[in-house]
Amino acid sequence: MGHDQPRRRRHSLPWAASHCRPNVTPYILPKRAVRTRAAFLVSGGGAGLDCLAETTYFLPMRDTQPNAEAVLAAARKLGRPVEPDQAELLAVYLDQLVKWNKKMNLVGPADWRTVFDRLVVDSLFLADFVAGLKLPDHPLSLDFGAGAGLPGIPLRVLWQAGDYWLVEVREKRATFMKSALGRLRLPATSVFLGKAEDALDRLARSGHQATADLILSRAFMPWQKLLDFIRPMLRKEPGRPGTAIILANDPPPAESAIPGGWRLGDAASYPAAGSERYFWSFKVE
């Protein structure tokens, strides 16, 4: 929490250690607090003003260190509880994200609770949505524009089927994700540093299948353009078509707006940051 700006106010705080009124009781510093200084108008026993004192005082500081217990409570508040072991991993990720964010601006100025309520919330509900889709037992999933690992890394804490690749062209963000995954040790979850259009070719050369079963996107590009872009990358076997998931702020589009070669699959809405957000799924034809 940043320091308060100096301000003038009438002294009514029994814990302000005034240099002007020696009979004022000083405040006992709590375990987590921020020390700052401000000018106070200190009122004496009478009606007049005794003096203007520069006062040292202390403000309680909001807990900025995520832990499993706090994550459990935050998830319950959002309406999608997690297991204690999942909360432990989410706390580790959030701790790393907040620390790196101070140097790299991964998610804008935010504490871990804000990140959880506004961004990780997508992953919580996405895990249930993906688990309900008809995917192969061991799907190959690509997360385009993975950025700081949202929604992908928290998603993998909750849903761990198949191989999951976080695809990111920006080196600093890819470095952060690799560092976070090194601490989390999530199964079959990796970072691909490079362009999205190069991902499958390079993965195929290293022994992976040449087409994906699932591609996820949040704001990677406009959804209609995205569907055209990823269509050659998705599996098209009969009975096993590839799936695209788009995270959106709007309800799914009308059938007439969907590009040829695609059909709208399952869709869902969920509460997030005071509004409704949506998952759309499309099946390639």
What does this structure look like?
By secondary structure, the chain is an alpha/beta fold. The protein contains seven helices and eleven strands. The protein has a seven-stranded mixed β-sheet, with helices on both faces. The protein has a two-stranded antiparallel ribbon with strand order 1-2. A two-stranded antiparallel sheet has the order 7-8. The longest helix is centred in the N-terminal third of the chain and has 21 residues, at 84-104.
Helices and strands in order:
Blueprint: E1 33-43, E2 49-60, H1 68-78, H2 84-104, H3 112-131, E3 140-144, H4 152-158, E4 163-168, H5 171-184, E5 189-193, H6 196-205, E6 214-217, H7 223-230, E7 236-237, E8 240-241, E9 243-248, E10 262-272, E11 275-284
Parallel strand pairs: 3-4, 3-6, 4-5, 6-9
Antiparallel strand pairs: 1-2, 7-8, 9-11, 10-11
Summarize this structure briefly.
The protein is an alpha/beta fold. 32% of the residues lie in helices and 26% in strands.
Q: Which short descriptors sum up this protein?
A:
285 residues, alpha/beta, seven-stranded mixed β-sheet, two-stranded antiparallel ribbon, 32% helix, disordered N terminus
Q: Which descriptor suits the 3D outline? A: globular
Number of DSSP-assigned strands: 11
Strand order of the largest sheet: 5-4-3-6-9-11-10
The largest sheet, given as strand count, sense and whether it forms a barrel, is: 7 strands, mixed
Category by helix and strand content: alpha/beta
Gap between N and C termini, in Å? 52 Å
- The secondary-structure element order is EEHHHEHEHEHEHEEEEE
Strand content: 25-35%
- Low-confidence parts: 1-61
Helix content: 25-40%
Give the count of helical stretches.
Answer: 7
In angstroms, what is the radius of gyration?
A: 25 Å
The averaged pLDDT comes out at 84
